[in-house]
Amino acid sequence: MFDKLDDTLMRYEEIMNQLSEPDVANDTARFKKLMKEQSDLTPVVETYKEYKQCKQNIDDSLTMLEEESDEEMRELAKEELNGSKARIEEIEQKLKVLLLPKDPNDDKNVIVEIRAGAGGDEAALFAAEIYRMYVHYAEGQRWKVETLEMEEIGIGGMKSVNFMITGQGAYSKMKYESGVHRVQRVPETESGGRIHTSTITVAVMPEAEEVDVEIDEKDVRIDVMRASGNGGQCVNTTDSAVRLTHYPTGIVIYSQTEKSQIQNKAKAYALLRAKLYDIECQKAHDAEAEARRSQIGTGDRSEKIRTYNFPQGRVTDHRINLTLYKLDKIMNGDIQEILDACIAADQAAKLSNLADQD
Asked: Comparing C-alpha atoms, which of 8, 17, 182, 178 is closest to residue 95?
């Protein structure tokens, strides 16, 4: 581990020297690339420097205990020694986490797909509530949300909705939301007061650039048509809606949220790219089944990950056995505590996996 840390420190210093060179400062692309690498390495370097300082404090304290005869000074040295020893264990653990292999998609924007499952209208209503929960969370993170595709029902529910979240580290946090979300509550239409169980599925996909996925135009059929439903002015009077059919996979994308056919086509292609990239990512995960099982919440879409129980006001994440009694806050976008717990469990599982390999 420490050889790797020394190499990281050398690379960091090399980058800092390069950034001060005039030719690099004038090369925008290279400058941005180096700044990104420097930003990624900074947490590791700062933590490693703290570790080295802590080690130095321990050595200094031990020297003082050997050489110092004054009892008061020896007591101070003992306090410094014990404090540094406790701190160095924490720093070592932090360094191990920082050196874990990074998911290459973590810095990407995400496309989220929510679909109503079992439960009819009640599932569609819950899908709309989960959509709003994510929008509130994204706003709290100062991320931008853009709707790509939406199929609504008349009572305020959504059969499906696709939307993009743009922001720093969006995928690194949102990826833990993939799976089946279950709601238990008494529907407004239930006269007998019985609790019903409904489900929705959430798929979180990293945004795919054109360089990530190559789409052959011959594999895609493009149909244009008039938008349906409640549109803004001109939406329903021109052929602005776009439907893409991808022959090799059978994926069909429909986009009508914009007035312009060009904009709807761009959104449809962005969603298609994300879905195709996600398929490739799933294949890669399947090829590393053992590694995938060791991770938290980025696995099977059919996995029931969370239950929202309205009568009891609780939310339970089944992957990490976490139950919180603050359902109202969570439905209003306060999901950070759940995500932090998922991230911690994921890191612990990966560290355990590395230890087993060693």
From this structure: 8
What is the C-alpha to C-alpha distance for residues 283 and 32, in angstroms, rounded to an integer?
A: 32
- Assign 307 to helix, strand or coil: strand
pLDDT, the chain, mean: 83
Residues 304-321 pLDDT 10s: 899 999 999 999 999 999
Residues 182 and 117: their CA atoms lie apart, in Å, by 9
pTM for the predicted model, two decimal places: 0.73
Rounded to an integer, what distance in angstroms lies between the CA atom of residue 235 and that of residue 233? 6
E strand intervals along the chain? 110-116, 144-152, 158-166, 179-185, 196-206, 220-225, 241-246, 251-255, 304-309, 314-317, 322-324
273-308 tens-digit pLDDT: 888 888 887 776 665 554 444 445 444 456 789 999
Return the pLDDT at 210: 65
Q: Which residues contact 258 (CB under 8 A, 6 or more apart)?
A: 240, 264, 267
